Amino acid sequence: MAEGSNLSPVLEIANRQELEDLKPGFHLAMAGYPAEAITSGQLLHIAATPTFAAGMVTAMTDMFMLPADMAHGHLIHHNLPSAGGASGSPMIGPSGKVVAFHNAGTSVRVQGVQGRIPSGALKNYGQRADLLLDLIEGRAAAVVEADRAYWRQRTAGFKRGIEVTVPSIAREVTAKLYAAGQLPENMAPVLISQDRFRLTDADKSTKKVPELDKSGAIVTKEVSQRQKIFPVKLAGGKTQLFIAYAESRKPLQMWLLSGKDQLAADSVAPKDRDAVPMHAGRLRRRWARGSSLRPCHLGPAPAGQGRVSAR
C-alpha cells in the first residue's frame, strides 16, 4: 500500500479521477475465494479463508475487447491468478481503494478432467469500479441508455451468434453423416425454411411433474412452459436437420410429431449446442442458442408429414 494510506474496515471505491489513472502496468491486489478445482474449495463453507493475489493491469478495453477511450474502457485485463468462485472479488490499487471487480478468467477444458482449468497465460478480467459508482449514484440506467449508440457502432461489423452457430452445426452434422457412410457424397446443406418467433404468455401452459425434495421424498411440482407447433413436410430421400436457436442461451426442447404420435425426442440435459439429424424417420431434440427453426436437406429419409414442436 502507498505510504500513509489510511485504511478503514470498509473498502473505499476510488473516485473517477483516480480511475482515469488506470493503465497497463498499474499494480493490483485482490483477495477472494477461488474454489473451482481447488483442493480446499470444498471446505470454504465451513471456514472460508481468503486467498491473496498480486499483479498488474495488462490492458484496458471496452466490453467488446476493443481499444476505447476513458469513458468506455471499463474492461480491465489483468494477470492475477484466479479460479471459479473468485468472481466479484474487489481489486485494490496502491492507494488501498477499490479500482475494479474481478469477473472473468481465461480457462480451458480437458477431456476426462472435471471443471475448467485456468490458462497459464493469466489473461483475466475485471470491471472498472465506476460501474458500481453509477449504481450508487442512481445514474446507471441513464449511462446504459447513453451507451447504446456506442454499442451499436462498435458491434456493427460483428456476426451474430445465429450467423455462426447454425452453419457450424450443419457442417458438423454433414461431415459426421458422410464419415459414417450415411450420405452418398459430402454435400453442402440446403436451407429449406426458417422462422423467427417470440414465445408469449399466450403460448404458456403448466403441468405437474414429480421430483425429489431435500429429504428424498417424491413431491409434485407445477412447472410452467411455453410451446409452439410448426407443420413441416418431410421430403422422401432427404434427411432433415432441425435447429432451434434461442436468444440469451435459453434452453429449448424439440419433438417430431405425426398427428398425436410423438416420433422422437431427446432426453439429454440442456447444453449450449447439439444437433442430431432426423434420419430414417427419427428426429431428436436440438439444443442451441437462438430462436429460429432451420430445416436443412442432408441425406436420405422417408417421405411424410409431421409437426415440429418447440418449447
Summarize the structure.
The chain is an alpha+beta fold and 311 residues long. It has helices at 16-19, 130-136, 140-155, 161-179; strands at 27-32, 51-61, 75-78, 90-92, 98-104, 107-108, 117-118, 124-128, 190-191, 195-196, 204-212, 218-226, 228-234, 240-241, 254-258, 261-265, 292-293, 296-297, 304-310.
Q: Give the helix tally.
A: 4
Residues in helices, as a percent range: 10-25%
Mean pLDDT: 80
Radius of gyration: 25 Å
Which structural class best describes the helix and strand composition? Answer: alpha+beta
C-alpha termini separation = 55 Å
Shape: extended
Major sheet: size, sense and barrel closure? 6 strands, antiparallel, barrel
Number of domains: 2
| Poorly predicted parts | 267-310
Instruction: Give the tally of β-strands.
Output: 19
Strand % is 25-35%
Strand order of the largest sheet: 1-2-3-8-5-4
Q: List the secondary-structure elements in sequence, H or E.
A: HEEEEEEEEHHHEEEEEEEEEEE
